[in-house]
Amino acid sequence: MAIKSTIFKADLQIADMDRNYYCPQVLTVARHPSETDERMMIRLLAFVLHADEFLSFGRGLSADDEPDLWVKDYSNEICLWIDIGQPDEKRIRKACGRAKRVVVYCYSGRSAEMWWEQNNKQLERIDNLSVINIQSDVSKQLAKLAQRNMQLQCTIQDGQIWLADGVESVEVNLTVWKPRSEVVLRR
């Protein structure tokens, strides 16, 4: 008999002053049996950073053809594809072909750095891709916020990101390894 996903409830109060996005979000997050609290909390962080009425979770680790999070428009076109971890270069290229914008959030300290060293030359050429690293100490602090029923306050202002649960507070510093290229349209 297969082990079932663990269900987490997250009540998020998002105040993103950089994007003028202020909205409470009540989420049900299924944590795959092989997923850690750390990875799940990175998924929640990615949700906060890209919060949008169309943002939703993919089917998770068991689905090769879906991201961790995505935004689809009314015509079912993929506007945003978000992967967590260290995806295969082939998967990233395929995602970049399917979506207008792709963001990869890496974590895990030295193993993430090694992944980037191996893949950066190939990935640097992809215009619609961003690669962002989350420091290992920060991702571990985020994992400590994981509870079956979470109430998190999320504040983003001037590039500063804070997640708090009423007891603990985590400042999240992101390192952009590869910014998305701004496409200049010529008339």
General description of the model:
By secondary structure, this protein is an alpha/beta fold. The chain has a single domain, classed as Restriction endonuclease-like alpha-beta roll fold (Roll). Helices cover 25% and strands 39% of the residues. The protein is built from 4 helices and 11 strands; from the N terminus they run E-E-H-E-E-E-H-E-H-E-H-E-E-E-E. It has helices at residues 37-49, 89-98, 110-123, 136-144; strands spanning 6-16, 21-31, 55-57, 69-72, 78-84, 99-106, 129-134, 149-157, 160-164, 169-172, 174-178. The chain has a 6-stranded mixed beta sheet, sandwiched between helices. Helix 1 crosses helix 4 (136-144). The protein is globular. The N and C termini lie far apart (60 Å). The mean pLDDT is 92.
Short description:
By secondary structure, the protein is α/β, with parallel strands linked by helices.
How many beta-strand runs?
A: 11
Net shape:
globular
* Low-confidence spans: none
As a whole number of angstroms, the C-alpha radius of gyration is: 16 Å
Main beta-sheet strand count, sense and barrel state: 6 strands, mixed
Rounded average pLDDT: 92
- Write the CATH architecture name: Roll
Number of helices: 4
Return the string of H and E elements. EEHEEEHEHEHEEEE
Distance between the termini: 60 Å
